[in-house]
Amino acid sequence: MSTARGARARARIEVTAAIKDEARRQLAKEGAAKLSLRAVARELGMVSSALYRYFPSRDDLLTALITDAYDSLGATAEAAHGKVAADGPIRRWAAVCEAVRGWALAHPHEYALIYGSPVPGYAAPDSTVPAASRVGLLLIDIVRDAHQGRGVALTPLPAELEPEARRMAEDLAPDLPPEAVTALVAAWAQLFGLIGFELFGQFHRVVEDREAFFRNAATRLGHGVGLVFPQGGGTAGGGNRPGS
Amino acid sequence: MSTARGARARARIEVTAAIKDEARRQLAKEGAAKLSLRAVARELGMVSSALYRYFPSRDDLLTALITDAYDSLGATAEAAHGKVAADGPIRRWAAVCEAVRGWALAHPHEYALIYGSPVPGYAAPDSTVPAASRVGLLLIDIVRDAHQGRGVALTPLPAELEPEARRMAEDLAPDLPPEAVTALVAAWAQLFGLIGFELFGQFHRVVEDREAFFRNAATRLGHGVGLVFPQGGGTAGGGNRPGS
DNA sequence: TCCAAAGCAAGAGCAGTGCTCTCGATTGTG
DNA sequence: CACAATCGAGAGCACTGCTCTTGCTTTGGA
């Protein structure tokens, strides 16, 4: 059903893709604030008004780019995870974190679009939720696998947070202990804090070797959600060989 | 020397302040993207070109607002810290974190201006550095005080990070152990990750009781940099009474 | 096969933007 | 007092998002 029946429908999805491509190109070059519908149309050899047949407004174009960016990031993270799926949880956790950072460094403006300040009056429609959740779900899976084997000791929750923690666990991962879910959500936000600070220049003249710094911070983040050290497996863990 | 000698100079700083005030008002209402020089001028009863006598460009106006925002945040954090200066390190740490979050919630658009995606081709001039550093310096002070008394055990650094950690410690706090400084910088970034996620809607349908969630996450962040529990002081800690 | 309906690109036009330049008027200083 | 610096006002340029109307082309049903 998704195969276009007529030539017209086919042309429509092609033009739509071309518009998004050109918009993405301008986005990467100048940033979201300077993304101009007219410039996109000009570059595509059409007139600005024609573009409104495909996107009812500039914000709708941005929404499409946002969804695509979430999906691109999610796919990158999932692919990176797939390559180390046989390793231990911290290794997988670190791999996902580094993949997210790598994608952010490679697509700074798209990253800013989805994790930076939201556009003026714009509220992301619910249609972006599935794409936006992919990285989070991946992290949940990793933590779930780690807790599957044996229970991991986490610092207990304060009483004031217990109901909320129970609720979050119910929503996100009913098979995980509430303190693990709470720590996970926090680590998830903190991960993007690290990346955002690096990307948005807050580490200027503060952190130089950002690669090493991030690797360490991300690993510590993993420890914070209960993932254990590679060599801590007891059985002379397979996976302790130095990576390239 | 800062007192204006002539009436003209006095008028100048007054008009400059009025422009920033009105700009801040529009910023709070519509966000940075919709901040219009013309609208500011209109509201002030002058013509747009007159405004260029005070700010050479829109970006310069934004820069002024950015510096002011950093200072406002820094002052808020310092004031909050001053009120609990006699308490233990984690309490002071948590107080600063919550003050930062409170300021962010009260001034979301200004927060987005300084910690959100940077504007297009804009690079913050070095003049913003001192104002931008205030919160970070405050956190360093707290950690320094905590480590002053007794050394606190932190997880050792991996070899690859050791030179960078040493360098950072040299730059930021030569009297602190490198692993503490590294953890502190990470926690600093992670703190703003928590706040940014809450503010920019990433916690939508995920975290409900954000107050409690943040308090717990911020406290755990403090533990991560070596700050100990209030009741862990041994001497039946003064400061364990439930705060209002 | 024919024809109305729908989809489409183009152009003109509106209201708004940042910014520049010029022109008088005001103001402070030698 | 006179000169120079400063300031506000206005016109104007190039640009933006967006709307509306005008024709042309494709499509799908009778």
Automatic annotation (TrEMBL), chains A, B:
| Top-level taxon of the source organism | Bacteria
Q: Which PROSITE patterns match?
A: HTH_TETR_2 (PS50977)
Please state every residue range assigned to the domain named HTH tetR-type. Answer: 13-73
A GO MF annotation of the entry reads:
DNA-binding transcription factor activity
Q: Which InterPro entries match?
A: Homeodomain-like_sf, HTH-type_TetR-like_transc_reg, HTH_TetR, MT1864/Rv1816-like_C, Tet_transcr_reg_TetR-rel_C_sf
Give the keywords, sorted. Answer: DNA-binding, Transcription, Transcription regulation
| Leader sequence residues | none
Q: Which SUPFAM superfamilies match?
A: Homeodomain-like, Tetracyclin repressor-like, C-terminal domain
Q: Which residues bind DNA?
A: 36-55
* Name of the protein in question: TetR/AcrR family transcriptional regulator
